[in-house]
Amino acid sequence: MRLDIRYRMHFRYSRPVRESQNEVRVRPRDDETQRVLWSRLTTEPATQVFSAFDYWGTAVDHVGVRTPHESLELVAETSVETSARPAPVPDTPVEGLSAPGFRAAHFEFLESSEHVRWHTGDGVAERAAAAAGGAGSVSELLAAVVAEVRGALRYESDTTDIGVSLGELLAGGVGVCQDFAHLAIGMLRSVGVPARYVSGYLFAADETAAGEETADVVSVQTHAWIEAAVPGAGWRALDPTNGGEVGERHVVIGCGRDYSDVPPVRGAFMGGASAEVEAEVVIGRRLSDEPQSIPAHRRRSRILTNDPP
Q: Using the 8-state DSSP alphabet, how is residue 45 labeled?
């Protein structure tokens, strides 16, 4: 599937700021299931963009503006070709999760992290253990925990903040995609399954729907799902928000222990102002021989472009 993605972020400050510095993690990665054909990041005010990869392998664009400005606009555009993911390998016995070598290789994704912490009495480990208790294979265990998460939470936009705890999520019973992902990761880690957070895009007008998208263009936000490590089989992707398969409609930006490792934007500014941000992702689907369908945008004087090899 060929997808054209345009991610626009517009920061408005209540008064001119002297300087702003931002790390931007919105560029898709190249891997065995997706290929980035080209990408570019434009800014207003125009400034130099420096690119690198972080500890987790996610592409990071550093944007710094050191002159007074009242707003900052970032427009990231990319064209990516996705393919179906390989079918899951035959069932792996749950006993393989306890192998010392396997646990040592995935220790960073077995322990609690900033947004994935569970405590005695908050219900996270208890509900995960009850759901996974009858599983004879890792695949059965993953399906049982994801089903438990989907039974515990109802999707409702604008109901939680990024700092909400897993116990608060269970008590409130509502959340958005990052909450579904964090709760699933916490439950899986609590029963010994290494799990990591995936930030990316989902070509779907409704991120809670597991079926195929019928529209050719959708206006969305970034999406989150998870990957769980399976002994002898690598990472298995699952989407707790909709319960569907992770496939051609999913575009990976990067992975980490939780949201704090892969936020779309992280930054700071100087000047004693307050800030508001607008963000929108527009994704268009097209056949490989169709012309580019990303909406037109104003031309910038500074453009970072990554051309296909």
A: S
* Predicted structure pTM score: 0.91
Please say if the pLDDT value at position 168 is more than 90.
Answer: yes
The highest-level CATH class for domain 94-261 is alpha beta
CA distances from 6 to 94, 178, 191, 245, 258 (A): 41, 21, 39, 24, 24
Residue 308 and residue 30: Cα distance in Å, rounded? 11
Please state, in angstroms and rounded to a whole number, the distance separating the CA atoms of residues 1 and 107. Answer: 34
For residue 78, give the DSSP letter: E
Q: Look at domain 2-83+263-299 and name its CATH class.
A: mainly beta
For the beta sheet containing 250-256, the strands, ordered from the edge strand earlier in sequence to the opposite edge, are 234-238, 223-230, 195-202, 250-256
DSSP 194-226: -EEEEEEEE--SSTT--S----SEEEE--EEEE
Locate CATH 3.10.620.30 in the chain: 94-261
The whole-number pLDDT of residue 88 equals: 77
Residue with tokens 């993690």: 25
Asked if residues 11 and 280 have their Cβ atoms less than 8 Å apart, the reply is no
Angle between helices 124-132 and 138-152 (to 10 degrees): 130
- pLDDT per residue over 237-286, tens digit each? 999 999 988 999 999 999 999 999 999 999 999 998 999 999 999 999 98
Beta bridge partners of 75: 8, 42
C-alpha span between 32 and 40 (Å, rounded):
22
- Pairing mode, strands 174-175 and 154-155: parallel
pLDDT tens for each residue of 99-126: 999 999 999 999 999 999 999 889 999 9
